[in-house]
Amino acid sequence: GLSRDDIIARLKERLDDARFEHCLRVEKTSRKLAKRFDEDIDRAGLAGLLHDYAKQIPVTEYRQVIQNEGFDQALLAYGRGIWHGMVGVWFIEHEVGITDPLVLQAIERHTTGAPTMTPLDEITFVADFIEPARKLDGEVAARKAAETSLSDATLIELQNTLTYLVSTNKVVYPQTLLTYNALIRQTN
Ligand code: DGI
Ligand code: FE
Ligand code: FE
Ligand code: FE
């Protein structure tokens, strides 16, 4: 496998400085959460470091991969906000050489969540939302919840994301809604 320095070099080829710095903060936050909830720290750090690797890959490259590599063609109606997790893992496998299925799954799910999430999935999902540069009310509330409960923090993040999408006239990807429904059912 690649060393951390090699991975960082690959990340810098695909990301601008601001997005790269966000990835470093999510790596650090993920390691903290893994320590707190007794999960695999290195795995969590790797998923956090790479979670947005594919965020700035050109749309033309995405369209080719979605069309030629066996993805659901309904994805073509979305954009990089949705693609960089679920399709992004294709680039991470092929360009960075990551093979750990648990790490790839956490990255795949980091934007939409999934109806059943592993603790590692939740760590990546939540770390992205509560890394230290995040200052909005919902982000502060999720950070507070994450002191004691990953699932509470996950639900707060989902509620905020859905509220944001609806209030700004954005299309909701079905899996985002399925994640929300599953979490609400677990809560009630
Ligand atoms: O990549 P980041 O900005 O660090 O964070 P992220 O991967 O959680 O992406 C957040 C963005 O994705 C945010 O602008 C909302 C958007 N998003 C999340 N769920 C959906 C979505 N966009 C659409 N159109 N539909 C969704 O269901
Ligand atoms: Fe992201
Ligand atoms: Fe997120
Ligand atoms: Fe992110």
From TrEMBL:
Q: Taking every annotated instance into account, which residue ranges of this chain make up the domain HD?
A: 19-165
Annotated organism of origin = Lacticaseibacillus saniviri JCM 17471 = DSM 24301
Q: Which Pfam families match?
A: HD
Signal sequence annotation: none
EC number(s): the record gives 3.6.1.41
State the reactions this protein catalyses.
Answer: P(1),P(4)-bis(5'-adenosyl) tetraphosphate + H2O = 2 ADP + 2 H(+)
Listed name of the protein: bis(5'-nucleosyl)-tetraphosphatase (symmetrical)
Keywords from UniProt, A to Z, are: Hydrolase, Iron, Metal-binding, Nucleotide-binding
Annotated Gene Ontology MF terms? bis(5'-nucleosyl)-tetraphosphatase (symmetrical) activity; metal ion binding; nucleotide binding
Which PROSITE patterns does the entry link to?
HD (PS51831)
Record Gene3D superfamilies: Hypothetical protein af1432
Record bears the keyword Iron? yes
